[in-house]
């Protein structure tokens, strides 16, 4: 049980990292996306908004609609939606379809962790790393924001 618990902690941490990367990697590509689709940088930046808005607003609705006793199925569905939407985003031929697929990826990303975390074993059986996951995630986000805005401020 300990090995399976440890593996699940690493998989959830990897998933959280992938979700963080997927939600903010677009910001670094804004000039390239603007050039590729012949839109302004401000318009290209709306892709970040589409992802995060769908993540924040769509995921609670989807989680509420899926039955609670089917967590593994919900997690697999979320992963499939996230993966397919990101592949479709990469293959998008126009800006509107790219924006739609980024929003779909946001919904998929938004319900991966809510479905993954309850699949963990009880707290007393969990490695101590998972107990620190929320605080390390918060520190990672703070460092990322500081790193992203430091060149602008400096």
From TrEMBL:
Q: Where in the cell is it found?
A: Cell membrane
* Record-annotated Major facilitator superfamily (MFS) profile domain positions: 8-154
Q: Which Pfam families match?
A: MFS_1
Keywords in alphabetical order, please.
Cell membrane, Membrane, Transmembrane, Transmembrane helix
Q: Which residues cross the membrane?
A: 7-33, 45-66, 73-92, 98-117
Q: How does it sit in the membrane?
A: Multi-pass membrane protein
Protein's name according to its UniProt entry:
Major facilitator superfamily (MFS) profile domain-containing protein
Q: What is the phylogenetic placement of the source species in the record?
A: Bacteria, Pseudomonadati, Pseudomonadota, Gammaproteobacteria, Oceanospirillales
Concerning PROSITE patterns, the annotation shows: MFS
């Amino acid at each position: 049980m300990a090995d399976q618990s440890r593996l699940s902690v690493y998989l959830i941490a990897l998933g959280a990292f992938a979700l963080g990367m997927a939600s903010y990697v677009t910001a670094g590509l804004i000039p390239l996306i603007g050039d590729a689709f012949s839109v302004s940088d401000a318009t290209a930046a709306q892709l970040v908004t589409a992802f995060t808005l769908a993540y924040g607003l769509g995921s609670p609705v989807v989680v509420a609609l899926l039955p609670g006793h089917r967590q593994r199925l919900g997690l697999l569905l979320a992963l499939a939606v996230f993966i397919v939407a990101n592949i479709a985003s990469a293959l998008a031929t126009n800006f509107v379809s790219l924006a739609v697929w980024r929003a779909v990826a946001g919904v998929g990303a938004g319900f991966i962790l809510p479905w993954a975390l309850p699949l963990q074993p009880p707290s007393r059986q969990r490695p101590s790393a998972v107990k620190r996951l929320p605080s390390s995630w918060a520190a990672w986000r703070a460092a990322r924001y500081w790193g992203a805005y430091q060149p602008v401020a400096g």
